[in-house]
Write a structure and sequence with these properties.
Helix content: 10-25%
CATH topology: Protein Transport Mog1p, Chain A
Largest sheet: 9 strands, antiparallel
Number of domains: 1
Shape: globular
CATH class: Alpha Beta
Number of helices: 2
Radius of gyration: 17 Å
CATH architecture: 3-Layer(aba) Sandwich
Length: 197
């Protein structure tokens, strides 16, 4: 059986795109960000990403954002106490974060890790725990320019028992993108049912 080839998915123009398996809704815009594309990575549409970018008047302040939604690793609890289950789930989330970091480092061998830590996100009044890592590297091509020094931020959250959300933000290294990234993280409302509790 041949491996699945990721491909672009047509999103409804001017309307929200819904990842039907998880129920996650991706609006046309989130603050200063505009949706620019959807990519599917699995035949059953369980694994998809949605790209956003900021519209800027001058070069040097572009931000590319990508949100991935995909199944969480299965956890077999066998009637374990809640604290044991929570600990096991946190371990699985941390393992996925480690894999995501390896993916970045393989794709960008010259990447420098600036920081890596736990993360907390308040989304729609609910606190979610996860992980974050910040990198710097030179992107061969970014925002229609060659060899651009960039910062790249990774966030991974176990959104529910069944789904993970991963965010990637990339922007020019000398630009302060923190306010826009924070606005995006808070502004893209999680609509995965069990993530609302």
């Amino acid at each position: 059986m041949e491996p699945y080839t990721p491909h672009a998915v047509q999103a409804p123009q001017g309307q929200a795109y819904i990842h039907v398996n998880s129920g996650m809704v991706f609006p046309v815009g989130v603050g200063p960000f505009t949706r620019v594309g959807v990519t599917r990575y699995s035949e059953n549409a369980y694994d998809e990403s949605v790209g956003y970018s900021t519209l800027v008047a001058a070069p040097g302040s572009e931000i590319a954002a990508t949100v991935y939604v995909y199944p969480a690793p299965q956890l077999r609890s066998y009637g374990s106490p809640p604290d044991v289950i929570a600990s096991a789930r946190a371990y699985l989330c941390a393992s996925d974060f480690s894999r995501a970091r390896v993916d970045i480092e393989r794709a960008h061998p010259g990447a420098t890790l600036i920081s890596s830590s736990e993360a907390v996100l308040y989304n729609a009044g609910v606190m979610h725990n996860g992980f974050q890592a910040h990198y710097s590297f030179t992107a061969p091509r970014f925002a229609m320019r060659d060899a651009v020094p960039v910062r790249s931020e990774l966030y991974v959250f176990c959104a529910s028992e069944r789904w993970l959300l991963k965010y990637r933000f990339t922007y020019p290294a000398d630009y302060d993108a923190a306010p826009q990234i924070d606005a995006f993280l808070r502004g893209l409302r999680w609509t995965i049912p069990s993530a609302l509790n």
